[in-house]
UniProtKB/TrEMBL annotation:
Regions annotated as coiled coil: 37-71
Domain Cell wall hydrolase SleB: 296-371
Basic and acidic residues bias: start-end ranges: 209-227, 240-258
InterPro entries: Cell_wall_hydrolase_SleB, PcsB_CC, SleB_dom1
Organism: Schaedlerella arabinosiphila
Protein keywords: Coiled coil, Hydrolase, Signal
Residues annotated as signal peptide: 1-34
Protein name: Cell wall hydrolase
Peptidoglycan hydrolase PcsB coiled-coil domain: residues covered: 89-157
Keyword Ligase appears in the UniProt entry: no
Length: 390
């Protein structure tokens, strides 16, 4: 039976409509899943970036905490050194005061006649004035020495207070950094948990998307086989390179050999520096060591060792002024010595070190602390304890 042409056209239109509806129904879930996957990927990427930033900040804070702890240890040593110096100055002042009182007592009790005899024995007015000035100088000397000792004691006490203030400031900074590290740890933990959740959801969606895509492909393949009678449906091989629902993992990046930093101690190595750097070198030696040759040379050896090592700056100025390394820089003592000028012995030892002189007992040392403030193993030279690593 033949259908009219209009009826045939109507049937074709209905078939086309059914096919379009079928495709829309099939593709709609895939579009929804694609939007969900994109959203989760964006969230995971954002959390990854946050976690990376948190890790970088934690590394920075850990470095700052380590630096603060080192500075606190240095300051604790200097506080103890200052307290010992203050005790010595107070004892010296008390001893000189007692000596002065004894002399004054002697002069009042039995000394007046002797002094008068010395004055009246003068052979001329000039001799009389000289002897009177001598007597006056005895008393002036005592007063001047007491005034000087009192000034030294006040200066040491002021220095101790500066160190105590810096110690309190560093401890406060360390506490704040520790608190910040705790907060970052909590944030990192929460971020990692969210990231793990998103990754699980993302993996589930990708598996579902792959399953639906596979079902659609099989349906399409079956439909084609039905349209070709006599053909045997073929089962496509699944590639082993990328399985459905899995991402191909990139090859692991080959890490370069990290290697090790080797400290190089150059015994006898010489160096040329400017006059300004020589001043700084001599001044820091005077601040950090007793005015005794080996004590000064021991500190100079540490500075020259640092200058030869890739772990430290390569100039005297940069080594001395490096953050958190030398207490006299923080407290202003270095500027004071530079203003009045270092001693001749400090200059002499600084120049010897630049010419290649090293103290053998500390030739492999890069650090030192006041010996009275630490129980570290090391070499004691001039009440400074020298050691290789922090």
């Amino acid at each position: 039976m033949k259908f009219p042409r209009k009826a045939c056209a109507g049937l074709k239109g209905c078939a086309l409509g059914v096919l379009v509806c079928s495709l829309v129904m099939t593709c709609s879930p895939l579009l929804v899943h694609a939007d969900d996957i994109s959203d989760l990927e964006n969230k995971a990427s954002s959390l990854n970036s946050q976690l990376s930033g948190i890790n970088q900040e934690m590394v920075k804070i850990s470095d700052e905490i380590t630096s603060a702890k080192n500075q606190i240890e240095i300051i604790n040593g200097e506080i103890l050194r200052t307290q010992d110096s203050l005790a010595d100055a107070q004892a010296d002042e008390a001893e000189r005061y007692q000596a002065m009182k004894s002399r004054i007592k002697y002069m009042y009790e039995v000394g007046n006649e002797s002094l008068l005899e010395m004055l009246f024995s003068a052979e001329s007015m000039t001799d009389f004035l000289n002897k009177a000035e001598f007597i006056e100088n005895i008393s002036s000397y005592d007063r001047d020495m007491l005034d000087r000792l009192h000034t030294i004691r006040e200066e040491i006490a002021e220095r101790e207070q500066v160190l105590l203030d810096q110690q309190a400031s560093l401890i406060s900074l360390q506490d704040r950094l520790e608190q910040r590290r705790v907060e970052l740890n909590a944030t990192a933990k929460a971020t990692s948990t969210d990231l793990a959740t998103f990754n699980m959801q993302l993996a589930a969606l990708r598996q579902e998307e792959a399953r639906r895509a596979e079902e659609a492909r099989k349906a399409e393949e079956a439909k084609k086989n039905e349209q070709k009678p006599g053909t045997v449906p073929t089962v496509p091989a699944v590639s082993e390179e990328v399985k459905p629902g899995e991402d191909k993992k990139p090859e692991e990046e080959k890490k370069p050999d990290e290697g090790t930093l080797e400290d190089t101690v150059v015994n006898g190595g010489s160096a040329n520096v400017s006059a300004g750097e020589l001043d700084i070198f001599a001044a820091i030696l005077e601040c950090e060591a007793m005015q005794e040759h080996d004590s000064l040379l021991a500190v100079a050896t540490v500075i020259m060792n640092r200058m030869s090592s890739s772990l430290f700056p390569n100039t005297i100025k940069d080594i001395v002024y490096a953050e958190g390394q030398f207490e006299p820089v923080w407290t202003g003592r270095l500027d004071t010595v530079l203003s009045r000028g270092p001693s001749d012995l400090s200059y002499q030892v600084a120049q010897e070190a630049l010419n290649g002189a090293r103290l053998p007992s500390v030739a492999d040392c890069y650090y030192f602390l006041y010996a009275g403030a630490t129980n570290r193993p090391g070499v004691n030279v001039g009440n400074n304890l020298f050691f290789q690593s922090w």
